[in-house]
Write a structure and sequence with these properties.
Layout lengths: L5 H5 L22 E2 L41 E6 L14 H10 L4 E3 L5 E3 L2 E8 L2 E6 L13 H11 L15 E8 L2 E6 L6 H7 L19 E7 L3 E6 L16 E6 L3 H10 L4 E2 L4 H8 L5 E16 L11 H9 L3 H8 L29 H10 L6 E8 L5 H11 L3 E8 L1 H9 L6 E6 L7 H6 L11 H11 L4 H17 L3 E14 L2 E2 L15 E2 L1
Parallel strand pairs: 2-11, 2-12, 14-15, 14-16
Antiparallel strand pairs: 1-9, 3-4, 5-6, 6-8, 7-8, 9-10, 10-11, 12-17, 13-16, 13-17, 18-19
Helix pairs in contact: 7-9, 13-14
Length: 543
């Protein structure tokens, strides 16, 4: 699959409670890419779009790192994931598997903890000097796997590299508000912005791994809980514990000596690996598989992380002569969907129905909004008022990977109110290309992960949004207000007003939240998945 833009890194391939199975893997046995010899252990962790979502005036400094906090790492942890790593370069890696692996190898200025909250990472504190200046104080004593110390110069190198046009990173646009990065002293770095960018802190947790100035994408070196050992494309990627990892990291401790990530596209094969003992953790369970595992009677358990991610059927209101231009039609299509039935019958009650454009894990969500209860009569009434009471026909684009019972249920329920939906299934790369080319049909289905920051709405649902086929001037006004301030309370209030506007004038059918479901062997204790959406190998103690 080809991942083209920043939206693809956080949107289309997520570990959800309703993920379809794929074809079993065919491992390819090329020569492994091997890490360089390691130096003495360091003395001294993710996520696109913050909690807090904007820059706080200050962040409380954490305890200085130590190299002796973690117990001795032992054993080998084998993790089955849905796809192979896409690139050893963290700035050219956009898939969920890639992001997870890189978050084990690298640290970031800021991190998200197990609850998805924004917390200190390599930056032990930060502050907004003014609306366009952010200053970060780094932890002292943290070292890269090479033995070199993490300093402000490394942060500047990393920022300059991700912004380098020659690198052509697919996430470069998310950092374009950075005008200059200045090294104040070895432990202090200052970001000068071209405009207020309240989403930048969240972006820093997701894509900008901090790299040493000597970085090589063939021999990757980070400062994270695990160091790179080798990658045999199509078969496995191996990491070794960083025994000197600093104490207090939100990512946790590297308790397994060796970690092997294995690409296994077939969900059925992943479950079989878990049950046979070939895998210790498997990602991407479907709701059906999770329920079966829960009732299997031992040997393995299900672990769940509720994510700030959502399922939508977006509207393209920019097509000529489409009835979707009328807000009453878009409201009607929302009333036509039985979200409770989808959650209970198709998603195993592992998710929740949306009552607005985002859920409670996204800053700015409005608990007072009740959304669109299932009401076929109301839907038909609104369609009649819009002049399409006899119904109409519309195409729905969906990536082949996302074509499942949820999409089929939405199409069937819309049919009950006279809207005939023609499902157009596209290869994932073709789906992305069509989206980027502004060629989507009237409806298009998307699962969007890592939606902690409400600024993502500007990308998806504003008049000038890069991936938007919709325009609500009233909502845009509030989005602009939210993006123009670094004050958390003011920003949340602005987005709540935008969400109210989008309930009156919906940009999508707001379906459900997302959850990540994992199968975990009973020989693994202590491990819990993260609401950040990344699969951390930390805190997994092998019995």
């Amino acid at each position: 699959m080809r991942w083209l833009a920043p939206f693809t890194s956080i949107a289309l391939l997520v570990l959800t409670a309703c993920q379809p199975a794929a074809v079993p893997p065919t491992p390819v046995p090329p020569q492994p890419t091997v890490a360089p010899p390691t130096v003495a252990p360091p003395t001294v962790a993710p996520t696109a779009p913050p909690k807090p979502t904007a820059a706080p005036p200050t962040a409380v400094p954490t305890v200085a790192p130590t190299a002796t906090a973690a117990p001795q790492a032992t054993g080998k942890l084998t993790i089955d994931v849905e796809a192979d790593l896409d690139s050893l370069d963290p700035y050219l890696s956009y898939t969920p598997t890639g992001l997870s692996i890189h978050h084990n190898i690298y640290d970031y200025l800021l991190e998200r903890d197990v609850n998805g909250d924004l917390v200190p990472g390599l930056a032990e504190s930060w502050k907004a000097v003014n609306d366009t200046t952010l200053e970060f104080k780094l932890r002292r004593g943290v070292k890269f796997h090479s033995g070199d110390e993490v300093t402000a110069a490394a942060v500047k190198f990393s920022a300059d590299r991700i912004l380098d046009e020659k690198l052509n990173s697919g996430v470069r646009s998310r950092f374009m508000s950075i005008k200059t990065v200045t090294v104040v002293d070895p432990a202090t770095v200052r970001f000068e912005l071209s405009r207020p960018d309240a989403s930048l802190l969240d972006t820093l947790t997701n894509q900008m791994a901090i790299l040493p100035p000597s970085f090589s994408d063939t021999k990757p070196v980070g400062s994270g809980p695990y160091r790179f050992t080798e990658w045999v494309r199509g078969d496995h990627l191996t990491l070794e514990a960083n025994d000197g990892y600093w104490s207090g990291s939100a990512k946790g401790r590297p308790l397994a000596k060796t970690v092997a990530f294995r690409p296994v596209p077939s969900a059925a094969t992943r479950v079989a690996d878990l049950q046979s003992g070939q895998a210790d953790i498997v990602a991407g369970l479907s709701a059906t598989q999770a329920k079966a595992l829960e009732s299997s009677g031992g040997g393995a358990r299900v672990e769940r992380a509720d994510l700030p991610g959502y399922q939508y059927v977006f509207f393209n209101t920019k097509l000529a002569d489409t009835p979707l231009k009328d807000a009453k039609v878009r409201q009607a299509l929302n009333y036509a969907i039985d979200r409770r039935s989808i959650v209970e019958n198709l998603m195993g009650n592992y998710t929740k129905a949306l009552t607005q454009a985002v859920g409670p894990l996204t800053s700015g969500s409005d608990p007072s909004l009740t959304g669109f209860p299932y009401d076929v009569a109301k839907a038909k009434q609104l369609l009649g008022e819009a002049g399409v009471g006899s119904g109409f026909e519309v195409s729905l684009d969906v990536s082949q990977r996302d074509l499942d019972d949820v999409v089929q249920a939405v199409a069937a329920q819309l049919g009950q109110v006279g809207v005939k939906v023609n499902i157009q299934s596209l290869e994932p790369g073709a789906f992305n290309d069509k989206w980027l080319a502004k060629g989507m049909d009237g409806l298009y289905f998307v699962r969007w992960n890592n939606f902690s920051d409400p600024g993502t709405l500007g990308l998806l649902a504003t008049c000038q949004g890069f991936l938007s086929f919709f325009c609500s001037p009233s909502a845009d006004t509030f989005v602009s207000q939210g993006e123009a301030t670094l004050d958390d309370a003011a920003r949340a209030k602005a987005y709540q007003q935008a969400l109210r506007a989008w309930n009156d004038d919906p940009f999508a059918i707001y379906l459900t939240t997302l959850s990540a479901l994992y199968g975990v062997s009973d020989r693994v204790s202590n491990w819990k998945p993260s609401a950040a959406g990344y699969l951390y190998a930390t805190e997994a103690r092998l019995r």
